[in-house]
From TrEMBL:
UniProt source species: Rosenbergiella gaditana
Name listed for the protein in its UniProt record: dTDP-4-amino-4,6-dideoxy-D-galactose acyltransferase
Keywords per UniProt: Acyltransferase, ANK repeat, Transferase
EC number: 2.3.1.210
CDD domains, A to Z: NAT_SF
Record-annotated N-acetyltransferase domain positions: 79-231
């Protein structure tokens, strides 16, 4: 089989979702794709052969993705940044649900309401320490949550899960402060690298990371094929 099930996404979105095993791409057929509600493929932007094969089988470009790495040196605690507590979950769920509406989980591939719930649950899990290990938040003078970053330690490096700033507080340097706090969290764990994945279309995030000295390590594309797509 050239397609592997994505169990969590399949359960959450109530549809059969799979991902192409690129090592088995030569075995992928339209008939196998037809057994799934949605098939995803993540391909290096330089792998033109695989991109051509997938396009020929009815896959459509959904989003570009960039991988970046920030080398961690000296860091410092950031004022106004706190560890999220269960009391912050309601506000965080609301904020996350409305920040990522143009991600690769957008319509028409996924139901908009379920996509909102997806990101709300993600940040909820981060506060609880499941999937991501911790969530850091920015608070204003009224103790209102204005931004957040979720983090996890994986394979000897720190990784950012979600980073978001309320639309009402953009341009105030909160994203930069959250990124510095994320680096400080990583240093406290004895880690020397902070890994970040972001959409190529998210230029503001790309600029933020590059200003912080991030090194662009790779780019890739996500392609999807729905059950009712035709070649």
């Amino acid at each position: 089989m050239a397609i592997n099930v994505l169990a969590w996404e399949s359960t959450f979105f109530s549809q059969r979702v799979g991902k192409v095993d690129l090592a088995q791409l030569d075995r992928l057929s339209v008939e196998e794709c037809a057994d799934w509600d949605l098939v995803q493929a993540k391909v290096s932007s330089t792998d033109y052969q695989s991109l051509d094969k997938l396009t020929a089988q009815g896959f459509a470009l959904v989003e570009g993705e960039a991988e970046l790495v920030v080398a961690i040196a000296d860091t410092s605690r950031q004022s106004g940044i706190r560890i999220a507590r269960p009391t912050h979950i309601e506000a965080l769920r609301h904020l996350a649900a409305n920040l990522f509406t143009e991600s690769r989980f957008r319509t028409p591939w996924f139901d908009h309401h379920l996509t909102q719930q997806f990101y709300a649950q993600w940040i909820d899990n981060a506060v609880q320490g499941t999937f991501d290990d911790q969530c850091l938040i920015s608070l204003d003078e009224q103790a209102t949550v204005t931004g957040f970053v979720s983090l996890r330690q994986s394979e000897g490096v720190a990784r950012i899960g979600l980073l978001g700033v309320a639309s009402t507080h953009r341009g105030a340097g909160i994203g930069h402060q959250l990124l510095l706090a994320a680096a400080d969290w990583a240093r406290s764990k004895g880690l020397t690298e902070l890994h970040i994945t972001t959409q190529l279309s998210n230029l503001s995030a790309m600029r933020l990371y590059l200003r912080q000295g991030a090194r662009l390590t790779s780019t890739s594309y996500w392609l999807y094929r729905k059950r009712d797509d035709s070649v």
